[in-house]
Structures
1.
Amino acid sequence: MDLADFIEQNLAILVRDWVEYAREISREDRLVSEERLSEEQLRNSAVALLSGIAADMRTHQNAFQQLAKSRGAGAPSGFNDAAHQHADDRLAHGFNVNEVVAEFRALRATVLRHWQESSPEGPTAFQAMIRFNEAIDQMLAESVRKHVERSTHIRDLFASVLAHDLRSPLGAIVNSPELLLHDEGLSANGVRAVANVQRGSRRMKRMIEDLLIFARTRFGKALPVSCTSQDLGRICSDAAEEVSATWPEADITVTLRGDLRGSWDGGRLGQLVTNLLVNAVRYGSGPVTLAVAGKDGGVTLIVGNQGNPIPSSALPTLFDPLTRASALERSGTAAGMGLGLYICRGIASVHQGTIGVESTETGTFFTVRLPSLPARNDAADAR
């Protein structure tokens, strides 16, 4: 008997055995009854998966199509729909990716065990097993891809909502120290305490702004900028003062040369420079240098610090979001923040510029190159 026919004729037995295993997975760590999959839901899911696999196995497939399927291409839309529905159902009930994979592993084992007991013989049986494994592997890949895609979207949406909702209460915290510092009756200890609150709240504000930018770009939206006439020298000097106020122990030297006037988003460039300086102060050691030079219709900005070099293996992903080159603190490797360097790359890119890094035993240097007059980008200018 053909394996596809075997699956359909023994569907009830196959579903029963698989549901018994899947029910155990759905019970683990799910104390709330609403979070558990009912037997009917499990049964319907198994029927949809097995029916889709059997239908796919009956589809004519030449050598070229078989090669394409082995590389994850060529599945019909109905086949993928079953995999996507399975992923959505499992995500809604709190299944993680490992549990989704375990379900498919059990489904494969259940079918092949019963198929073997029917004593299939000949080359057609071997070919049928190949087709079955191809189909279930592709359905597994589609289900996992959909699960990860949806999980990531939900996580990014949560981060966006959280960052947005935190802005209002944090705004009150940021503004309050400004009022308190004008109170002449405040004691010396009170002034120091208020200054600490002010520095801490400003750092929190920067982190929330970075989180909002991260969430925005993850949803495929361009980083908003509004370019006006700016003096990059003033922007860099202000950024250095701000970082020095937060980290009084930091030794930051600013060098300015050439024509540093241009058309940029001043707030965004200030954020870029601040992120690079904070990164150098937190993860490097010794003095921090900020050198800015204007020449031939462009500017070059270099932030350097001493310290252990960034491992070469970390450089390719250093500007990726939520990554670090090292878990060591300031005395260790000069590493990137989870979002800071990612934001820097986005700001440089939206100004038609570039950012790169070189790290050796002599120091770590981040280099930003920007045109003084970036080409107009209506999408980026939109707010």
Note: The mean pLDDT is 82.
2.
Amino acid sequence: MKKLYIKTYGCQMNVYDSAKMEALLKPHGFVASKTLVDADLVLLNTCHIREKAAEKVYSQLGKLKKIKEAKAAKGQDMMIVVAGCVAQAEGEEIARRAGYVDIVVGPQSYHNLPELIETAKREKRWVVNLDFPVESKFDFLPEETQQAGPSVFLTVQEGCNKFCHFCCVPFTRGAEYSRTVGEIYREAVKAVAHGAKEITLLGQNVSAYRGEGSDGQLWSLGKLIHHIARIKGLNQIRYTTSHPVDMLDDELLRAHSEEEKLMPFLHLPVQSGSDRILKLMNRKHTKEYYIEVIERYRSICPDIAFSSDFIVGYPGESDKDFEETLDLVKKVKFAQSYSFKYSPRLGTPAAVLQNQVPEEIKEERLAALQALLKGQQVEFNEKAIGTKQTVLVYETGKHPNQYRAKSRHMQNVVVEGYDGSAQDVLNTFLEVEILKSNSHTLFAKPL
């Protein structure tokens, strides 16, 4: 058996893709390894959403070069594969900066990995596949994928047609593509059979899901959720990531109102609270529309909590524009959020704009925004103190009789004082009382 080491960067879809690639290579004699130096094949599944993410890949490649050279000196081979979005966006740059890489493969072509590996071995040359094939890669991937733990990811949609001016996804993942309902349902059933209690439906723009159903019609995400919820043994359903313009869909609203298995938590990126900046970003929604979406979902699901993504320092952003973002945050009140300084991505329209915001101003704005968001997250977590909740336990903690779990609202929960065996509580639901909290974690005792 040959040893395979996979390092995954970025989003949950990359985590899903890595699991699929591991399953794809298993019949070809590869077994997963936790140690890098023992690996015969090292696969970096990369993310290109931010500049630092891409630079981390090149830094890792520099370390791999030394390991590869040391192994070669001993007469041992190590193949290096760069997969994912950095591969798709920077194939030529990888060849220039890291010519010792053996294979570069984009996210829509990784089902060709076994063939690419054999070609690289046989012909002793650099191999690249950055195609956007007409046929779905899912037709060639193994359905059996062993994801560890009670919570698993399931890709239902890929690509994006929105073309936000800061985003590379349409260029690295391609146009929107939705898998059929039948494919998704079969994979979900198998995941539950392997112990999954919770499934997160994934897509770069998952709320735009339109997959062919058993009736030959295109099903929306809401209808898909109702269908998946019928699976016995599946307790919880989530989905991510959504775009605001797709959210006022009657079937999706109905799912949040009626489907008990659908968790009351929604990640809904807004990026900015300024209509002027939103237009420059090509986001296709306004601040008022975003708030309307939030209010509609709160009206039909009062328990729902929201997280979001923010970009500060987008080219041309003024102090007034930034104040509009702070105003939106104060009006919505988020349970969690992610915020970043704008960084140009090669090939995107925003990358060539001249009115870039100075780095020191980006730093100041990011600090102010994160302070506000952190305060809201602390406040949201404090509201849980004294409540009784059902949490999904997924791993042991650092101390004896301590476990890590997840709440319905995606909060980290540390459970202390459970006196039963780990076998009894891991991968199950546990009734707890929340005793205290901080900005990132709830602390609980079992009931």
Note: The longest strand covers residues 388-396.
